[in-house]
Write a structure and sequence with these properties.
This protein is of the alpha/beta class and 169 residues long. It is built from 5 helices and 9 strands; from the N terminus they run E-H-E-E-E-H-E-H-E-E-E-H-E-H. The longest helix has 14 residues. The chain is globular, with a radius of gyration of 15 Å.
């Protein structure tokens, strides 16, 4: 699932394109917000949760592209993601949003994806138009941070929070 609307009144069901996973070059243990492998076979995950994800246990290295329709709709997803502490999340780069200020500093790394991601339309299974909003990948855990560091060569600009740099000294 995805976090954005292409236009008012349209679906919020948009899928992460395959090139993101090709650049990440990793297999996830669990996709926590998935329509399932029959719809998105390019997502490299061993298991998929497609309902009640926030009330179910997450295990292993997770991929999270949560639904995002309501204001602050990412908050419960990000809360569970950072408590889990092992994975990569795709979110909008809304740096002034309260949820951004609360959760993104908990990341081990932030990869600002460039150019903007043209998400796959659930109705046509083709890339949509270029969105107004950019996207970023958040790393939770050392393994995820290393993966984003490597993927930044193909996907964009990597930023490491100051607290992480200080801890590494």
């Amino acid at each position: 699932m995805s976090f954005r609307l292409q236009a008012v009144g349209e679906t919020d069901e948009w899928y992460t394109p395959a090139y993101i996973f090709e650049a990440l070059n990793v297999e996830f243990d669990l996709d926590v917000a998935s329509p399932g492998p029959s719809i998105v076979p390019w997502i490299p995950a061993k298991r998929y949760l497609n309902k009640n994800s926030l009330t179910r246990q997450w295990t292993g290295f997770v991929w999270m592209n949560p639904p995002f329709k309501e204001r602050n709709g990412l908050v419960p997803w990000l809360d569970k993601f950072f408590k889990h502490g092992n994975g990569i999340a795709l979110v909008p780069d809304r740096t002034s949003a309260p949820w951004w200020q609360e959760f993104v500093p908990k990341s081990n790394a932030i990869l600002f994806v460039s150019p903007k991601v043209r998400f796959i339309d659930a109705g046509t299974m083709k890339p949509g138009s270029v969105p107004a909003q950019g996207s970023c990948l958040l790393a939770s855990g050392k393994i995820a941070a290393k993966i984003l560091q490597r993927a930044s060569l193909d996907l964009g600009t990597l930023m490491i929070p100051y607290w992480w740099c200080e801890r590494a000294k």
